[in-house]
Structures are given as C-alpha cells and as structure tokens.
Amino acid sequence: MCFTRYTLEQALQLRDPPNSILFQVSPHPAGYFAVLGLHDAPDPDRPDEWTFFHYISFPEPASHVNERTTVEHMAHQKQLAKLFMGRVAKAFEWMSDDGRSNAWYGKLNHWDPAAEGHQWNNRGGRVTIAGDAAHPMTFQRGQGLNHAITDAVALRDGIVGAWKVGVGMQVEERPEMIGQYEDGMVRRAGEEVRLSAKNTQMLHDWEMVMNSPVVKSGLNQGKREDGRKV
Ligand SMILES: Cc1cc2nc3c(=O)[nH]c(=O)nc-3n(C[C@H](O)[C@H](O)[C@H](O)COP(=O)(O)OP(=O)(O)OC[C@H]3O[C@@H](n4cnc5c(N)ncnc54)[C@H](O)[C@@H]3O)c2cc1C
C-alpha cells in the first residue's frame, strides 16, 4: 500500500483530464493487480498536497514471511510497475524518497468465522465481536465495511428486541440473543470471506480476468455520451 504526494505537474497528469478518474484498477497478464486512486485532497486547488493511494498486489505463498523493509517494498513496487503503462506506471516511477511517499506491506489474509476451530466463547453472551475482529477478509470485493455495519445493525436490533422498557434485558435472555446475532453474522460474513478470497485469486489470474463477466459483457455494453466506447 503506497501513499504518495506528487509535484503539482505530476498530480495533474495522474488526474488528466481533470476529475476523469477517481479510482483505477488494472489487472496484468503476469498475475499482478494494480490500483490507483486519489486518497485525500484537502484543498482541491492544491494538487501538490493531494495524497494518492496505489499498490500492485502479487501472488505470494501463504506460508511465506515477507521480510522486505519499507524501502525494499517501494523498490519492489517500482520494479513491478515497469510492467504497466500510462498513469499506473508513472504513479510508481514518481515515488520519491524525500518523505512524500510511504509504503506498508499487508499480506492478503483472512479469517473465516465459520471454519472449524474458529468459534469463540461469548461467556454467556457477555462479550461478542463484530466487523474485522470477527471476519477479516481480502478487500478487492470491497465488502468488509459493509459487513461490519450490517453486524452493528444486527446486534443493535437484537439488543432492542430483547430490551424491556423499565426492566432492561433479562440476563437469561442474553445468551440466546447474542447467539442468534453470532449465528447470522458467522453465516453471512463467513460466506463473504470465502467469496472474497475467490475473487482475490481470480483477479490475479489473467485467464479468469479475461473470462469474467466484467470483461466479457460489462466492458462491451455500449458507448459513452461522448461517443467513445465504454
Ligand atoms: C485497501 C482496502 C480497501 C478496502 N475497501 C473496502 C471497500 O471498498 N468497501 C468495504 O466495505 N470495505 C473495504 N475495506 C475493508 C474495511 O476497511 C474494513 O472491513 C473495515 O474498516 C472494518 O471495520 P472495523 O471497525 O471492524 O475495524 P477497523 O476499521 O480496523 O477498526 C478497528 C479500530 O480499532 C482500533 N484498535 C485496535 N486495537 C485497539 C486497542 N487495543 N485499543 C483501542 N483501539 C484499538 C484500530 O486502531 C481501529 O481504528 C477495505 C480495506 C482495505 C485494507
């Protein structure tokens, strides 16, 4: 994950024509997946203060411990970027070591709460978990926050349903209420964890990318208003 502030000219080139692209994803035939987006623009009139977010993800054995330093990660990302063209290549080429770029490494990991041995003890409903604490998932499908919010709503609904005005919640009702919340969350989010993992793998497999509905039908839907093909 790289976060970079560029010079005025570079930032404008990455957004040329202005406001054209907010977020760009680029799969590569060699099994890489590049992302480039505008992360933060505190002042729309000061492109040299904008922060861009960009990374190129790459397959790595699950057991492999990546020991690159931050500097080495940046060098590795720059190296991978040479396989790309256009603004994606530029975004990495222009990363500098003057403090305007930074990089973090995060292995694409997940935790399926429905998998055997992944259950937790909720201590009679006194403690439970939600969001990434319960079901961290790979993020290319963009569903982690959605499920975290759904968890919060389900838990809130459970508490409201079990709450009796003037009395509160009966202690004996608590295990069942929390149990129901956890069962629903584990089923729903567990499926999403598995779908997300599949999606992440597919995005790093060129043949699967090219055979995906996005490429086969989504990108051939028609023309834009200005006449250019979508
Ligand atoms: C690159 C990327 C892209 C993503 N894109 C999307 C997307 O498009 N759509 C989507 O739905 N999801 C997306 N996600 C996933 C989403 O960000 C997470 O699923 C979501 O943030 C989880 O929310 P959370 O509140 O459960 O956990 P977090 O957001 O991780 O919040 C946990 C908080 O607890 C704090 N904390 C940790 N330990 C302690 C402690 N001991 N004491 C006090 N505080 C502590 C942390 O600092 C953090 O602020 C993306 C994730 C990544 C990495």
Automatic annotation (TrEMBL):
Q: What InterPro entries has UniProt attached to this entry?
A: FAD-bd, FAD/NAD-bd_sf
Lineage, top-rank taxon, reads Eukaryota
Q: Which UniProt keywords apply?
A: FAD, Flavoprotein, Monooxygenase, Oxidoreductase
Q: Which residues form the FAD-binding domain?
A: 121-156
What are its cofactors? FAD
Q: Which GO terms describe its molecular function?
A: FAD binding; monooxygenase activity
The question of whether Cell inner membrane is a record keyword is answered with: no
This protein is called FAD-binding domain-containing protein
Q: Which organism is it from?
A: Ramalina farinacea
Q: What lineage is this protein's organism placed in?
A: Eukaryota, Fungi, Dikarya, Ascomycota, Pezizomycotina
